[in-house]
Amino acid sequence: MVTPSPSDRARWARRPIDATDLARVAVFAAIIAFLGLPGGFTLFGSVPITAQTLGVMLAGAVLGPWLGALSVTVVLALVAVGLPLLAGGRGGIGVFFGPSAGYLAGWIVGAIVIGLIVHAGGRRPVVWRTLVGVVTGGILVVSAIGVPVQSLITRLPLAETALTSLVFLPGDAVKAVLATLIVTTLVKGYPRAFRREWTATPAVSRRGEPARVP
Q: Quick one: DSSP state of residue 137?
């Protein structure tokens, strides 16, 4: 079994976006929007707890950093023009000036970080790297951007805002585990869901026969 060279991985990463990629972006944008249909609820503070972060995690982990971020950006662009795609039927430019604004921006950055970790080096997603990716990008990065912005808008102390944001952690942990299970299942059962940089060009074994890339 031959591991793809850095030049191979770079070539795969530069593959231009095609119609299939755009279809994947549209599908995951729809998934993120769909996960907002159940609505959200607020325990402490003014930022609702929703299932949409799960969609962001899946977008980054399945589509990779740039297409994943694009799918999130599509959703937010539609929200900006007034479509009620956020949990609770929220939409319009006003949401980008409210307490949730930082979390929404964090979705884009989080999807990029998730994709970079899960698909590090153009490799096939594996369980541990997927979990690390969705936790880092989907929880830590989103919170690192969302909490300071929420503190600034609500004019509450940063420490107090960070403390109240801990209410998100149990739900985020569940979403991270679900995302990891879904991605792992897709890798094994439906690899066509991925852009598949890790299988774009088969490696060649020492016998001159195609070898599967890990």
A: I
Instruction: Read off the tokens for 194.
Output: 């991925």
Question: Could you tell me the domains of the chain?
Answer: 6-211 (1.10.1760.20)
Residue 160: CB atoms within 10 A of its CB come to: 12
Give the model confidence (pLDDT) of 165-186 as tens digits.
Answer: 888 898 899 999 999 999 999 9
3-state class (DSSP) for residue 203: strand
- In the structure encoding, which two tokens stand for residue 187, read together? 């890798």
Q: Are 40 and 87 in contact (CB under 8 A)?
A: yes
Task: Report the alpha-carbon distance of residue 66 to residue 57 in Å, rounded.
Answer: 13
As separate numbers, helices (DSSP H) first and strands (DSSP E) second, the chain gives 9, 2
Structure pTM?
A: 0.84
